[in-house]
Structures are given as C-alpha cells and as structure tokens.
C-alpha cells in the first residue's frame, strides 16, 4: 500500500525503486533528468536520491505530427489574404482596391496621351498609303496600250456627239400641246358658264353613259339654278340585285342622279318551324320520324327541356327521342345543357 502511494506521488527512494523494478510497473524512472535503466545506474548518485517515476501513456502508432505539418504546408502555400484585416480593421481587399484606383487616376493623363499618339500614328500611315496609291510599287509602261486607249476614247466621244445631232435633226419642230377636254363635272362647277356662243365642241359633254333629259322636263329645269343635282325617286326596283347609279346630264348643266335601290327584307320574318309538343313526341316511334321536323324545331324542343341543342339533325333527333317518356328529374346528366355562369 505504501508502495502504491509513492508511485502515485511520482517520487521513489532507492529501496522503493528496487521493489518497483521487481514488480514490472509500466513506467520509466529518472534522477535529475537522467534515465535509469537498471539498479547499477543508481551507484553514480549519492544518497539521499530522489527517483522520479514517469508512467507511460497508451496510444497509437503516431503520425499526428506529420498530419499537422502537411496542413501547415498547405496553409503557407496560399497568398490570397483579401479577406484578412489590417491593424485598423479594414479588409486587405479594400485596401488593395483603393491603391489600384489611385494608381489608375494618376496614370490617366499618360493613357490619354498614348491613345492620342496611336491615333495620330494611324492617320499618318493612312495618308502615306493614299499618297502612294494602291499600286505604287507596280510600274506599267506600254506605249501601244496608251495609244489604243486614247484612240478608243476619242472615237467614243465622236460617236456620242453624232448620235445626239441625228436625234435633234430627226425630231423636227415641236408640236403645240393639245387642248385638254373638260369633264362634265367641270361644267357643273361653273367653269364653262362664261362661254356665250356654245360653238366650241370642247365645252359640250360627250359621254355615252349620259343621256339628256326629255324635252318635257325643260320647263321645270328652267326654274332651277344651273349646276343643281336632282335625285330621282325609285319606287319599284327592276330586279333584286342592287342597281348602279346612272347620272343624267341635261343641256343646262344639271345632273340627275338615280339612287341605287336594293330589295327590302322584312326584319320580323322568322323561319317556319313546327313546335314539337309532348303529344307529338309520344306519338313517334323512332328518331327518324323526328328528323322530318328540321333542325330549328328540334333545337327549340331541346332548349325547352333544358337539353343540349347542338349537333347534326340525327344527333338532335336521337337526343330528343331518348327522353321521350322520362321526367325532367330523370334526364341523363350528359344530355343536360350547361347552366349559365352568374
């Protein structure tokens, strides 16, 4: 028990060490920092000596230090410190951006100067190229080609001049422009009222579609001013088609325009159909008998019963015949018409 207390305290005497070495404790011993491997090593020290006991730690094979060194090497390889902060608390990224912006503003004049120099140099090269011409290095010297070129140009100029002189000679004296004939509408507006003799053929209205009024209407036309238009009333159309208006010009310039007529249609006229009552419906024996009543009669009968009224003639007849002996509450849902949305 005394030995265990000494081991727990961590210090042993010479006698306690001899007993502990025989019990094979899992530990090692040192005296003043020197490792004691056997009892002979204690002879090198004078009494009293204090032997320190070091219990061994149970662990694995190690390697944790190597892992730490590997991680440390990875951390040291990066040079991106933008998210770090300096001593004033500002991020390194903002500090570097501010420094680059100041440098950019400082070199703005130099950039503009360099840009202007590049532009002037480009303009100079273009002027030199235009002054030299597209083929300044090419030399062409052919007297025969030059002689033929001048000869062809001279012949072309002479041919053009001869053609122009011939066209002028053949044209002759210019004819005076023909007088334009007046339209009948111009006579209505009073353009021809100043002519008193009436012998000029241009002032007369010559149109195959315009017939002069009979002589019986001359007395009534004298009371109207010249240039008025009379609308003729048409009581009975000659045909169902719409007639075109046919203006009639009289001698004194008045025009009678007949209004086109169209056949009148009775707005209150409704298609003829027979109402299919329940008595008629109960009297038929097949849908084909209902088809003889027509689409409108079947549609009215289906609508009155609240059923769908669309489809062909046979579909309507079959739909109406299927509810012949049924009460409205027993009608199939698929035959009922959709209720209007409120």
From TrEMBL:
Residues 59-161 form the SDE2-like domain. Residues 233-244 have a biased composition (Basic and acidic residues). Residues 279-337 form the SDE2/SF3A3 SAP domain. This is Uncharacterized protein. It comes from the Eukaryota. Residues 193-215 have a biased composition (Low complexity). It comes from Hymenolepis diminuta. It is found in: Cytoplasm; Nucleus. One of its GO terms (cellular component) is cytoplasm.
């Amino acid at each position: 028990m005394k030995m265990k207390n000494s081991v727990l305290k961590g210090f042993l005497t010479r006698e306690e060490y001899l007993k502990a070495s025989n019990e094979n404790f899992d530990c090692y011993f040192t005296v003043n920092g020197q490792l004691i491997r056997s009892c002979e090593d204690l002879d090198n020290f004078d009494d009293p000596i204090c032997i320190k006991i070091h219990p061994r730690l149970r662990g694995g094979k190690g390697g944790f230090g190597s892992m730490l060194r590997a991680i440390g090497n990875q951390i040291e390889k990066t040079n991106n410190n933008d998210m770090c902060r300096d001593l004033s608390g500002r991020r390194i990224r903002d500090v570097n951006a501010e420094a680059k912006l100041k440098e950019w503003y400082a070199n703005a004049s130099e950039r503009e100067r360099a840009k202007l120099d590049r532009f002037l140099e480009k303009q100079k090269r273009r002027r030199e190229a235009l002054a030299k011409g597209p083929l300044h290095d090419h030399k062409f010297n052919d007297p025969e080609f030059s002689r033929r070129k001048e000869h062809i140009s001279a012949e072309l100029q002479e041919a053009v001049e001869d053609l122009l002189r011939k066209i002028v000679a053949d044209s002759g004296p210019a004819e005076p422009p023909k007088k334009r004939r007046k339209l009948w509408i111009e006579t209505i507006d009073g353009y021809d009222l100043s002519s008193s003799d009436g012998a000029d053929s241009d002032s007369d209205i010559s149109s195959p579609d315009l017939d002069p009024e009979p002589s019986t209407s001359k007395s009534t036309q004298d009371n109207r001013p010249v240039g008025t238009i009379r609308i003729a009333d048409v009581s009975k159309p000659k045909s169902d088609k719409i007639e075109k208006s046919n203006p009639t010009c009289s001698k004194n310039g008045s025009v009678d325009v007949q209004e086109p007529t169209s056949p009148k249609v009775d707005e209150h006229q409704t298609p003829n159909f027979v109402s299919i009552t329940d008595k008629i419906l109960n009297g038929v024996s097949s849908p084909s008998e209902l088809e003889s009543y027509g689409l409108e009669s079947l549609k009215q009968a289906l609508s009155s019963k609240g059923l769908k009224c669309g489809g062909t003639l046979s579909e309507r007849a079959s739909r109406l015949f299927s509810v012949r002996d049924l009460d409205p509450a027993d009608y199939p849902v698929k035959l009922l018409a959709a209720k209007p949305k409120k």
